[in-house]
Structures are given as C-alpha cells and as structure tokens.
Design a protein that fits this description.
This protein has 310 residues and is of the alpha/beta class. It has helices spanning 46-59, 85-99, 117-128, 144-152, 157-175, 203-207, 222-228, 257-266, 287-304, and strands at residues 3-5, 12-18, 21-28, 35-39, 63-67, 110-116, 134-140, 182-184, 219-221, 244-249, 270-275. It has one domain (3-144, 231-307): Rossmann fold (3-Layer(aba) Sandwich). The radius of gyration is 18 Å and the shape is globular. The two termini are 36 Å apart.
Length: 310
C-alpha cells in the first residue's frame, strides 16, 4: 500500500495511495515529532514548489512530507498535466493520513502548507480536517474568479480568445479520451498562457533558478485554467478551526492579496502576515521574512502549544 525508499540524503523517496493510483513524495525525517505536509502550486511539482521551504522546516527539526498531485511529476494518473480539484483535495487527505503513519511523527501534530492554488486547497482541507494542528496558506488563490478578472486586464483580447478556445476544445476532447492540449503556465501579454500578469513571468526564475529542475514541465492542460478560474476556496475560511497563517504579498497580481487577507480575517484562529513583492516574492527577495514567520508559527502551534498543560 505504501513504501519508503532510502535516498543518499537526509530525505527519502516515498509513495502513498490516493484514489486508484499513487502519489510520489519526498519524506524528510525530523526530530521534534511534528510534521508538515506540503505541495506546490498549480502544475508546480514538489521539487521547485517545496524544496526551499521544506529544507528550512527540516533544518528546524520538523518532519516534512512534500508530494506531487496525481497527473503531475512522479505521481501516477492519466491523463498527464490535468488539474482536477476534487482529486487534488483527496490527495491532501491521503497525504495527511500517510504522514500520521511515518516513524517518529505524532499524529496530533501534523500541519499543512501550500502556495498559490495549493494555498487555496489548504483552506478547503483545513476546513474539513478538524484534527489538523495548523495550516499555512502562502500567497493563496482564495478567489479564482477575482484573480481571473484581474488577469484579463493583463491579456490582449485575441490571445484571450485563443486561450478560451483551446480550453473548450481541450475539455471536449477530454470527454472522448483525447490527449490534453497544453498551454504554458506563464507568458507575456499577447501569448497563449494561463497567466500573463506582471509577476507571473517571474515564476520560472523564482522557483527554478539555474534550471535546477529540468524535469518540471511548465505547462498544463488548457481545460485546467477554466476550472481554476471558478475555484473560490476562501469561502471555507470561516470553517477552519485550527490555527491558520495566511501570507500575502501586497503586489501579488496572480492570486491577489485582498481575498487572501479576508480569508485570514474570517478564520476563527487566523493570522495574517503581509510582505512586499509579487506572487513569488517568498521564493525570492521576501524568502527570509516569509520563512521566519512560518517557522515561528509552526513552533508556536506544533511545539510550544502542544507542550502546555491541558
């Protein structure tokens, strides 16, 4: 059902069952009994999407389980490069359950972390999983409809029509089993890409500096853009009972800071950290303050709070 394979580093390759296939993961064994389950953003695999923060958390003593969604990276699932929100939420459930079985992990001290679309998933999952110890949503896509309206301002009409047309053709083709029609995750205005916002074009440099992750396919099925554009996970923030940290960047033009900040305010135990910069600033210039805030939050709610009487 599940297996962990030793790698010649401090992290190990792991796999866990989700649906009718398996999700691939990196497992970083920690020392303090707490564990953080992580996933990258839309079509961003576990290495470029989590490595930078996972190593910081692991260096602080936390176990980490960073996984690929079905249909992406090293995980199973066909067709490839297709975002299916319900399946991704189920992958989170399976990953959390698997993390609780890992050696040295206290099942009561498991937290989740995601950014961008996965940051939105964090809001949904935390609303369902009342037994989570904490949750971190970094520059989350809390309102896909608002983000889409803003993205339209940064795209040329002809390119927008081409993207919508390709998305519809891809959706119809998927119904009859055709291979997905892929589009780039980001591009300049006038090109057919999921995002052409000013900060989207910096994602490659922030997540994959020096081409460290050449196997990361920076494209997604065109139908996926239509699905994410209707996704509004911020609506579930009021149901999140565990401590929730929302990290927003004030110049974020891809996910938007406003809906994310409102989600933090609606959560009963929500905390908000505001940083300067665009959508990918926590992976670049704002990395140190982002990582410091997140580590402080994890220590408080997974280590210090867990040790208090009662």
């Amino acid at each position: 059902m599940k297996a962990v394979v030793q790698m010649p580093m401090e992290r190990k390759k792991a796999r866990f069952v989700s649906g009718d296939t398996e999700c691939a993961a990196w497992y970083y064994p920690g020392t303090n009994g707490a564990c953080v389950v992580m996933a990258g953003g839309m079509a961003v695999t576990k290495e470029p999407g989590t490595d930078l923060f996972a190593r910081r958390f692991h260096d602080a003593g936390f176990s980490v389980l960073a996984f690929d969604y079905r249909h992406f990276g090293e995980s199973g699932g066909m067709p490839r490069q297709v975002v299916r929100i319900r399946e991704q939420l189920a992958d989170w459930q399976a990953g959390i359950s698997f993390a609780r079985t890992l050696p040295g992990v206290d099942p009561a001290r498991v937290a989740i972390w995601g950014f961008s679309v996965s940051g939105g998933h964090v809001l949904c999952v935390a609303a369902r999983k009342l037994e989570l110890a904490a949750a971190i949503a970094q520059t989350p896509t809390a309102d896909g409809q608002a983000a889409t309206r803003n993205a339209l301002r940064h795209q040329e009409p002809l390119a927008l029509l081409r993207l919508m047309g390709r998305g519809l053709r891809d959706a119809l083709g998927g119904l009859v089993g055709r291979a997905p029609l892929l589009v780039p995750l980001a591009g300049a205005p006038g090109t057919v890409a999921v995002l052409t916002t000013p900060d989207a074009i910096h994602g490659d440099a922030a997540l994959d500096p020096d081409n460290r992750y050449p196997e990361w396919q920076q494209a997604v099925a065109a139908r996926s853009a239509l699905r994410v554009g209707l996704y509004r996970p911020g609506r579930f923030a009021s149901r999140v009972r565990c401590p929730l940290l929302v990290v927003v960047c004030d110049q974020d033009q891809s996910a938007l800071p406003g809906p994310a900040a409102r989600a933090a305010q609606r959560a009963p135990r929500g905390e908000l950290v505001r940083l300067p910069g665009g959508h990918y600033a926590p992976f670049a210039d704002a990395h140190e303050p982002a990582a410091d805030a997140e580590l402080s939050f994890l220590r408080e709610h997974l280590l210090e709070y867990a040790g208090r009487p009662g």
